[in-house]
Amino acid sequence: MMEESAIMESSQQLFDGLSFTIIPNAISEEEQAKLTKDITASGGIVIPFDASHGRIDKLNEISYIISTTSDFPDYHRALDLFKHVVKPSWVSACLQTSKVKNPRVYSPDPALFMNEVVVCCGDLPEGDKEAIEGGVLAMGGQYATQLTKFVTHLIALSMDDPRCQLALSKRLRLQIVLPHWFDDCLRIGRRLSERPYTLPDPEVLNTQAGAIPPTRTSNDIREATTPDPRDLPITATQRSGQPRAIRAFSGKKIMLSEDLSLSSRLKDVIISLIHAGGGTITHNVDEAHMYVCNYRDGPDYIKASQARKDVGNLSWLYWMITHDTWTNPMRRMMHYPRPRGGIPGFDKYKISISSYTGDARVYLENLVRASGAEFTKTFKQDNTHLITAHKQSEKCEAAEEWNVHVVNHLWLEESYAKCKEQTLTDSRYVYFPSRTNLGEILGQTEIDRDAVEKAYFSKAQARKDARGTPLVANNKRKQVVQDAATPVASRHADDKENETPGTTGSRGAKDRALSRLHEAAPDIAKFEKEMKRKGGVIHGGRREKDLEVVDKSKKAKGRDSVASKRSIDEVDGEDDQSDASTDEPALKSKRAKKDKMTPIKYRMLISKDDRWLNNPEKESKDKARLRELGLFITEDYKKVDLLCAPTVVRTKKFVAALACGPTVVASSYLDFALVNNKLPPPEKHLLRNHDFETQHGFRLDEALERAKQNQKRLLRDWTIFCTEGVTGGYETFKEIIVANGGQCHLWKGRATKVSAYKRTINTSDKDVSQNQEEDEGDGLYLISEAKKSELPLWTKFRELAQKHDMIPRIVTTEWILFVAMAQYVHWDEKWELKEEMVKGK
User: Fold this and answer.
1) Which domain holds residue 608?
2) What pLDDT is attached to residue 566?
3) In the list 93, 127, 564, 814, which could disulfide-bond 509, CB 3.0-4.6 Å?
4) Residue at a domain's end among 687, 704, 722
5) 716 & 834 share domain
6) Nearest CA-CA partner of 543 in 695, 434, 413
7) Which of 49, 64, 56 is nearest to 17 (CA)?
8) Are 22 and 45 in contact (CB under 8 A)?
9) Which CATH number do you get for residue 640?
10) pLDDT tens digits for 713-729?
11) Residue 243 DSSP one-character state
């Protein structure tokens, strides 16, 4: 009884101090109740989600968001604030192991297509195992060295493998597949069906398997096959004939564009549905929350897009009516307004389709037309491309004879998503996994936010549209926005600030992308290394160009890509282009002078200044004003001239940026600039905090001088290990170490192939070596915490250090924070962790 009580007491501390909210989409009320009970019983706090308006209140106060999908309004904002978004299975996994699991593995991010996959390898060559481990970790999955009940996929070459026999004897619920499955998933960049690869009789090895079976319609294209639906959904009205209330419209102002060309009857029905759902119709785009239009052009489209309003088409509106919930209009290709005239270059293509049926075929036909190409039902010799789900068809045979490009649908989807034709030299677009119908992954590509902004509503694009309207009208020509030269994107960096290491807080979208890329770097490097060797991961049969798959994984991690906010200075070089259509030289000259962007004088990173908290519109305007003065607000801590904060803080951004040796100024610098509309001398607003310096034992001005000497090389040749459970997160300290030239690796207590060797002090580099005098080169550092769960990791780490004849130093996070902020290597026994510190806790 006492033992059971002790276990309960331990589990109650698992979520201590953490707050949660549950997005109800696709989670039953019973499951929501169970999640709430489990979280609160383990010390967590559940903040109710207000389904009436579909947004998360007090997002800054929430640590974890539980959702089955990334398709909810606050998803990208949550990532910007570095909030963890996890699937419901994360909670049960944490409770089963009595450990807070890595949220990345349970992320609903569609880019991490291996999440919730736990792979174990049978009797494969060691190199193949390492390649599989690196790849699965990079794609959000987990790798297990031993066969356990948590393993979902056992990779083996035959059922004679001892682990396959063990799995059968223990009746483990897992899938036993050939290595080909993993290889094909990485090459395509999507999770494929295991069916053709499943042992004991995998279809991929059966040369007489017959026709490839058709696949069911992908859920990703349901109610999203056309950008221009003709009829309202049947579910739009109740049985009484009255309009049904749609929660997605509650409290929202919706603007319907004139380019929808709605009949008066249909328009009246749509308006009645919006009103029934608690929404209102507006004719002012500035007031609107949602803007519905057909095409990606016109001042209202540009203004709504730049203001980060929900911009979608009629198909998107109908989807919300059908499903009674909000969805991201960029989530599905046919929910976002079309480019008038299509994708540049596609107008010269004639495209046909093979092996797609039903809704899948309708979706691809409409996507071909929306891209600007000509769709042909009949495949002829003058076709330029054939899009097919597999290569077992007469059309594919004919295409080979006629030298017509045979591609999978990813080429079309990603060209449309990125607003630019994708090159066919990318092997993913011409690869067809054996015995697989690629229709199963149709519609999983999302619209690329950055690419759309760059092409259609960047600041330079808006200016060209505004100028062109009266001139085109005078010439009686129809205005076509996409005919303007495609500008470089301008995106205001509205990312918020992360908290001090040790708490869960906010971070910029760019930071998030960098963090994910750094996190996966060791796995990607391992994968790249193994793929280069002869044989690859398929027992001796090397497949060419596999490295391109790794490039895809890097792009997916920065999918911030999906949510990243690009900097406003990227319009430099485009803004000074004059309007060639004007006939008035004087006006042309004035415009060119006015449009010329002020050169960047300072790049500033801001930390812990909350002047723009929950006010993105003011933030956007203020940053634009500052940019006009020559001050560019950046989230990139690797290139900083000015570091601004209300006081000296120990956030990840602040600490990492110190490696640049910037001038550190107080928030009063921004106050002065915004009030007086000019940049003051930085030296008049230097940040001082004598209490901080006394408490931590170094002077900030001296630290900055050392940073200039070090030139981001203070930890060059250092390999530092860090556990997953440190407060503040492994990624935070990894980025701080990398910012100072070092390497950081996650330590899980397992044998590692990472070299641990004594450092040779480079006395020839006097600038850096003078700040490394206390380093004797033989210390091997592990950043950890005084917790019982960490103790087994310490024992294994000491074994690693002894193996390489080094001194193991297991330290608190205070050690690396001091080194990075003071900018010199220093050791104090107060930072060392020992077993006696944990006893009794």
Assistant:
1) 598-687
2) 31
3) 564
4) 687
5) yes
6) 434
7) 64
8) no
9) 3.40.50.10190
10) 999 889 999 998 898 88
11) B
